[in-house]
C-alpha cells in the first residue's frame, strides 16, 4: 500500500524531534509499491528514511521523504504492527535447527525487535547490537555496530530497488565496501538503492563475542551465563556516570534508555585511558569512544 501525505510534519519521525516538514511523505509497505510509484512526479530530491535516528534536519525538506514500512519477509505480505505478530512473521527456514540460520526481514522492522526475538529464540549473531535505535534497512546502510560486532558480520544479502534501472536486485555484502559506520550506500551508491529487506546469518551454535573491553570479565564477575539472551537482556543496570568503566556493565547497557548517545568523539588514547573507556581503534588518528 502506498500512502502519500503532502506537507508532512516530520517531528514524530526523527529522534531529535526537529519540527520540520517535507513537501511529500510516502510510506510504502510492499515491494510492488516501489514499482508502481511515479518517481518522476515526486517532489525532488527523494530521500529514504528509516527510523530517523541518524538524521538531523535543520530546515524543511523540499523533496520527498520515502519510508519503507515492509515488516515481513514476503514482499507483499499483510501488514501488522503488533510486535507479537511481527515476531511470528519472521520466517525461519526448515533447517533452523542447523547452523547457520538465514532470517530475512523487511526494511521497516525495528532492528532491536529483531535482536530481542533472536535472543529469545536462542539464535546468535545480533545480540551485541541490542538497543541500537533504527530499522533493518538502515542497519545495512550504516553498518551499525557495538561492542565488537558490526552489521556486516551477520548480513548475508540485501534486497533493494535500484532507482537507476527500476529493477530489484540482490546485493552481496562483500560488494558494499563496509567500514566503520559506512558503506557504498553512503558514498558511491548514495540515493541509488531503496533497501526493502535484509537477510541476516544467525547461528544456533553459541558464539558469544565478549572480547570488547572488559565485557567477558564483567559478565563473569556478575555471575551470568553466556546465553545470547543474557548478552542482549534487559533491563540491566543502567550506567549513569560517563566515567564509569564499561567493564562494570556489559553489552547492550550503553544503549539503555536515557543514556545520551554522543557522536563518538575522537579522543587521544591517553584521555581514553583516563576515562577508562575502551577505545574503538579503527581510525588512523586517535581512537573513537562510544558512550
Ligand atoms: C541514542 C542513539 C544511540 C545510537 N547508538 C548507536 C550505536 O551504538 N551504534 C551505531 O552503529 N549507531 C548508533 N546510533 C545511530 C543509529 O542508531 C544508526 O545509524 C541506525 O542505523 C539508524 O537507523 P534509522 O532506521 O533510524 O535510519 P535513519 O536515521 O532514518 O537513516 C540513516 C541512513 O540510512 C538511509 N536509509 C534508511 N533506511 C533505508 C532504506 N530502506 N533504504 C536505503 N537507505 C535507507 C537513510 O537515507 C540515511 O542515509 C545511535 C543513535 C541514537 C539516536
Can you put this structure into words, describing what you see?
Helices cover 17% and strands 22% of the residues. The protein is of the alpha+beta class and 291 residues long. Strands 1-2-4-3 form a four-stranded mixed sheet. A hairpin with a 4-residue loop joins β8 (155-162) and β9 (167-171). It is globular, with a radius of gyration of 19 Å. The protein starts with a strand and ends with a strand. Bound molecules: flavin-adenine dinucleotide. Flavin-adenine dinucleotide binds at residues 15, 47-55, 68, 107, 132-135, 137-139, 141-142, 144-146, 181, 193-195, 255, 261, 290.
Compact description:
By secondary structure, this protein is α+β, with helices and mostly antiparallel strands. Helices cover 17% and strands 22% of the residues. The strands form 4 sheets. The chain has a 4-stranded mixed beta sheet. A 4-stranded antiparallel beta sheet has the order 5-10-8-9. It has a two-stranded antiparallel sheet with strand order 6-7.
- CATH C-level name of the domain at 83-202: Alpha Beta
Q: Helical amount among residues, as a percent range?
A: 10-25%
CATH architecture of the domain at 83-202: 2-Layer Sandwich
Low confidence ranges: 74-98, 234-291
Find the count of extended strands (DSSP E, 2+ residues): 12
Distance between the ends:
39 Å
Structural class of the helices, strands and pairings? alpha+beta
Average pLDDT confidence is: 75
**What is the CATH topology of the domain at 83-202?**
Uridine Diphospho-n-acetylenolpyruvylglucosamine Reductase, domain 3
Characterize the biggest β-sheet.
4 strands, mixed
- Radius of gyration computed on alpha carbons: 19 Å
Strand content: 15-25%
**Overall shape:** globular
Helix and strand element order: EEHEEHEHHEEEEEHHEHE
Number of helices: 7
Sequence of strands across the biggest β-sheet:
1-2-4-3
The molecules bound to the chains, other than polymers, are: flavin-adenine dinucleotide
